[in-house]
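Hello again, I could really use a second opinion on something today. I've been staring at a protein lately and its backbone has me curious. Can you walk me through what the tokens say about the fold? Take your time with it, there's no hurry, and the full record follows here:
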Amino acid sequence: MTAATHSTLFPQVPETADAVLDGLDPEQREVALALTGPVCVLAGAGTGKTRAITHRIAYGVRSGRLQPASVLAVTFTNRAAGEMRGRLRQLGAGGVQARTFHSAALRQLQFFWPKAVGGELPRLLERKIQLVADAAARCRIRLDRNELRDVTGEIEWAKVTQTVPADYPAVVAKAHRDAPRDPAEISQIYAMYEQLKRDRSVIDFEDVLLLTVGILQDRHDIADQIRSQYQHFVVDEYQDVSPLQQRLLDLWLGDRDNLCVVGDASQTIYSFTGATPDHLLNFRTRHPGATVVKLVRDYRSTPQVVHLANGLLSQARGRAADHRLELVSQRDPGPDPGYTEYADEPTEAEGTARRIRDLIAAGVPAGEIAVLYRINAQSEVYEQALADAGVPYQLRGAERFFERQEVREAGVALRGAARAGGNDSLLDDAEDLPAQVRAVLSTKGWNPQPPAGSGAVRDRWESLAALVRLAEDFSRAKSGATLSDLVAELDERAAAQHAPTVQGVTLASLHSAKGLEWDAVFLVGLTEGMMPITYAKTDEQIEEERRLLYVGVTRARLHLSLSWALSRSPGGRASRRPSRFLKGLRPGSGSLGTVASGTSGGFERAAAAGRRKPRGPVLCRVCGTTLTEAGAMKLMRCEDCPSDMDEGLYERLRDWRAEQARELGQPAYCVFTDKTLMAIAERVPGSGGELSSISGVGARKLDRFGPDVLAICAGEDRGAGLDED
């Protein structure tokens, strides 16, 4: 065999069934050997659950105790199903079906529909949102784009919880669920949506499960045929099973009990979609003779990260908390988690970007670093900070801030109002710029009070609220600023971020980070009102927020940083408090019995971190006004103060930057942002010291690009500085 055969890309297939068990720890081995009867695997984060269940299936197949075609393994994403199939092939167990619930049900539905119903299976809707829009229109209920998304989500939730339209209002009230519209209206839209599907002979993804359940309940001959094929079932991520999926699983099983489930109640974070850990927690009640195996050896994270994760869950309450797993790290010790308190959000973002840059300089690949936040609207300040630091990034599960639909629509509305000026009656009672912006954005869904609950309407409001806050900061920084000035500022900010997505630091919400892991994780914005989120009111909702933070912590392999800001903007009142979930974990916040000395991580206030002097008021170098807006602080002047920028120098710098970006294979902002180039062209530095005093030009960029920039500023050819070196 070649060396490549033994690489991780081409692992050697175990020669015997017993060889499949090689390398498993005692608990994983116990899972692999438990081939009959009900089996419940309680697997903590990073404990090798996929390894355990794939080796279980492979050992059963290779030993002849399981026939490949008789095994059905189900999970929740196509990516996870594909990974499972790949691992099974590497273990010599090809032929085992590993699918999502929907994929497995759709195959069965397509095969049995002609026999059970007759004719062809109705067309499957790829996206149901247009049909929901049609249903709302039939009901004479007007929904904007984001309300449409949320109502569509409510219909999906109702269907996976097996709630019919007539029962929806009562079920929502009993579940204390925040509906995006009047429940009676949603019930009406839901009923019309179902009617339109029937009229148009289409089905949606939830119908795939519902119809399969219906056929298996009504046609015992078809149910017997499926049960004769599949004798053994494995369900991954069992804590995320919905009532409808559990009903389908019960019908697949019949009166048999050859079922292996794997899950962790402490990682239940999708209850808003209908997922519930009750099936996992009730498994031993439903199957009294079940084999239960706990996987607690954590192979992902260092003892320091695991210690924090355990401490976080030790404060949890509720039924899921009663079944929490105490993880035991199997890795060598690493650095303690860091806790940092910043004065304001821009400082938090800049500090995070500097630390990321330091990690990259120390050899950590950018692709192995993640910044995780609670809501997508938090991404904008980190996008800007990483761009200023020259660090490439990619967004996961979200659009860039200025590319979001609601932000683009708001920009169009603000631009139109700016053109209309005093002729826009909407602005008649608006006394200043922030009031004008609030008036315009109120037509796009913004109001002073955030909407109840989560979902697209809340996300939209958060984005619009970010624009309102930006207008307030801009107005304070520029006395007498007009709506046209603000529109120009928004255009400048958007232009600086219009760069292709590159492989780099991941920016992601905590929800979209589930199932992923990185060498270094930065958990940011950990303040009350954001973690837990302000609309988490009940004890159950608060505990899900704690589990969400737990998922974030357990994404880190080696480096973990937790941070928060005491105010939103520079100079603001320091009224925020760090998340209650950190009490007893971060130094100086009380004590917990589980927190051992020396393993709770270092706590620092950014001003005392030794990296920067405390940030005082930033004054305009022209008029002396206190600056609060990030772009103005970079230029060290008010936007409307006279600029002495050398236009020719600015254009030469832009041409040089484009050339550098092409050579590096990175977007232009990773060299310097437009605002940094403007600041250089205004101040025309003549030395390295003068250049380094400009915001956005740190030591690394000074060393890498300084000679070129200084040469251009001196009027020389852009390559002269490097040639002289």
